[in-house]
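Working notes for the structural subgroup meeting. M.R. asked for a predicted model of this chain before we commit to crystallization trials. I am recording the input and output together here so anyone reviewing the notebook later can reproduce the run.

Input as submitted:
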Amino acid sequence: MELQQTRTNEWYTAILVLSILIPVLYVIYLLTMLQENEQSIKGLLNLQPIYVVLMLVAFINPIWGHFLKQIPKEERVKEGRGDRFLTYLLVSQMVVGNIVMFILALLEKRKLPRASEPQPLTALEKTVALTLLALSLFAGFLLLRFIFFV
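Returned structure, recorded in token form:
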């Protein structure tokens, strides 16, 4: 059980680190583009609205990470709060096409130890998860629209 919990913590930590790195790397990418094209951020975002949607997607991840970090280790079990929150995260990442985060969340869910009793999400966690999922669905819809109809 101890080895299983250590592996689980490694995947969980990877998800938390990636949830912080994604927006940082995206901002660095945008700043690099601005320097190369000698544009303002306003000009770039007006010219290419897809970057606004990608910024929304990037900045949703730290919120996922924050709420995942708030779940105690003993509740990061199958049918526990961690597992349930990861399910919402999986759907969110699948909708916006974040393959790396999707795979990490899937691996984490598979490695979670069994719970002795099911633990539901708190009302706040469920509200936040559903809100982030709704934002992800909206962003995913916009991304598909930009890709196929623009």
